[in-house]
Amino acid sequence: MTISQDLFQKALTLIPGGVNSPVRACKSVQCEPLFIASASGSKLTTEDGTELIDYVMSWGPMLLGHNHPEVAAAIAATAANGTSFGAPCRLEVELAQTVIDAVPGIEMVRMVSSGTEATMSALRLARGYTGRNGVIKFHGGYHGHADAFLASAGSGVATQSIPGTPGVPQDVVKHTLLAHYNDLHMVRALFEEQGDDIAAVIVEPVAGNMGLVLPKPGFLEGLRDLTRKFGALLIFDEVITGFRIGYGGAQQAFKMEPDLTCLGKIIGGGLPVGAYGGKREIMAHIAPSGNVYQAGTLSGNPLAMAAGLATLNALARQNYDALASRTEAFSRELENILRGKGLPVTRNHIASIFTIFFSATPVTDFPSAQAADAKLFTTFYQQMREQGIYLAPSAFECAFTSFAHSAEDLERTLDAASKVRF
Ligand code: KE4
Questions:
Q1: Which one from 27, 43, 54, 142 is the annotated catalytic residue?
Q2: Residue 265 catalytic?
Q3: 409 among known catalytic residues
């Protein structure tokens, strides 16, 4: 028995499913999770000493690569002064300023401790600001595990095939309206039926929780027009895309301005941070300046702020276009290798994110993502992991490169893919 297997058996007696987040359990790919002892750059090292080339990158935060020296130094230096004050600190102001300077649609920002807190708070704010209850989300869209969003969610909910919203009162999700990603007709119909009670549309401007799905030309602009026409807020959930698609996120890349933006992952540099922000006039409704309540013991925690600030400051010096080109060429070659084996394969890519779907047809929404061949994905996942390549253990997640992935890493990955036997 390996150390990972031993630890997992122990974990199963202590923690539901042996993990602290469901998708890590690797159930959908019929594997046991590997327990990680350390990480550096593009690599993970397991408790059994196996080195892996990592394309999960902690589900997105580690765009600089694991254990970046500037981030590690900032955490250590800050920790030497204490870890949590329960009072404002300089670092909160500095990270807020850095986020506001980078993200076009954010004039004011509130720090929280997870992406779930960010989206949950943004929805509450939208409801408080508009006096309306409804929210439109998209099939396969994942915005964390707040009650309102667990209707046809992506990510771990889709991976575990969790139907609907067990444990969530119907009274809550009756206000959650569903449309298909890239389908403006469905959104328009919902607004025409119930527009006077729709507070917001929440959308991943690039969907990352049904695998990677890109917005069709005009889709996001259409959402902007419809929300303006019917007096609802447009919420961009940029927990994945923020500082990933580019330094200003998807909204800068697509030259759009949502009313509210949710952030997470990268802005914490590997520590627990989320944030939501937007127009000053809307954010002013948040307590204590306004009466929409939201709070958090560790919000703005100095350690997490230091990690986030060091990360964003280092990212500001990086060449995003070069990483995007490397990722595009690499993922295209990976697609060609698998197609060369006679497999049905389609690829979606943007910036440093890609997904290879085992599908002969394009993947543009959740139904087409669900139609991809899960058995082929499982074979691919298992044999790549056996060869030291660590992919997300779910067909409904993305693969992430980083500024730490070397040409040799990418070559080794392509070589491993060429050796997979289907
Ligand atoms: P967290 O509460 O997990 O920090 O963020 C929730 C969230 C919100 N919005 C988007 C677009 C997200 O992708 C996420 C979380 N992403 C998943 C994986 N795609 C986290 C992994 C997990 O659940 O273990």
A1: 142
A2: yes
A3: no
Instruction: Out of 276, 296, 315, pick the residue that ends a domain.
Output: 315
Residues 216 and 242 in one domain: yes
The range of the structural domain enclosing residue 241 comes to: 69-315
Tell me: do 18 and 137 sit in the same domain: no
Cα 337 to middle of ligand 1, angstroms: 30
- Cα 117 to Cα 312: distance, rounded to the nearest angstrom: 21
Ligand 1 closest atom vs CA 156: 23
Give the 3-state secondary structure of 38-67: EEEECEEEECCCCEEEECCHHHCCCCCCEC
Measured by CA distance, the residue closest to atom 1 of ligand 1 is: 115
Q: Which atom of ligand 1 is closest in space to residue 238's alpha carbon?
A: 11
- Clarify whether residues 36 and 138 are in a common domain: no
| Average of per-residue pLDDT values in the chain | 96
Question: How many angstroms does the Cα of residue 248 sit away from the middle of ligand 1?
Answer: 19
Single-letter residue type at 11: A
Q: Are residues 310 and 325 in the same domain?
A: no
Q: Please check whether residues 311 and 330 belong to one and the same domain.
A: no
Segment 259-282 shows an average pLDDT of 98
Confidence of residue 172 (pLDDT cuts 50, 70, 90): confident
The whole-number average pLDDT for the span 121-149 is 96
Same domain, 203 and 148: yes
For residues 96-105, give the mean pLDDT.
98
pTM tops 0.90, yes or no = yes
Closest residue CA from atom 8 of ligand 1: 143
Q: Whose CA is nearest to atom 6 of ligand 1?
A: 144
Residues 6+ apart with CB under 8 A from 204: 138, 141, 142, 143, 236, 237, 238, 240, 241
Is 186 in the same domain as 199?
yes
Note whether 153 and 366 are within 8 A (CB).
no
For the segment 202-212, what is each residue's pLDDT rounded down to a tens digit?
Answer: 999 999 999 99
378 and 409 inside one domain: yes
Closest of 142, 95, 55, 129 to residue 313, by C-alpha: 95
Tell me, yes or no, if 293 is annotated catalytic. no
pLDDT band per the 50, 70, 90 thresholds, residue 173: confident
In the predicted structure, residue 163 carries a pLDDT above the cut 70:
no
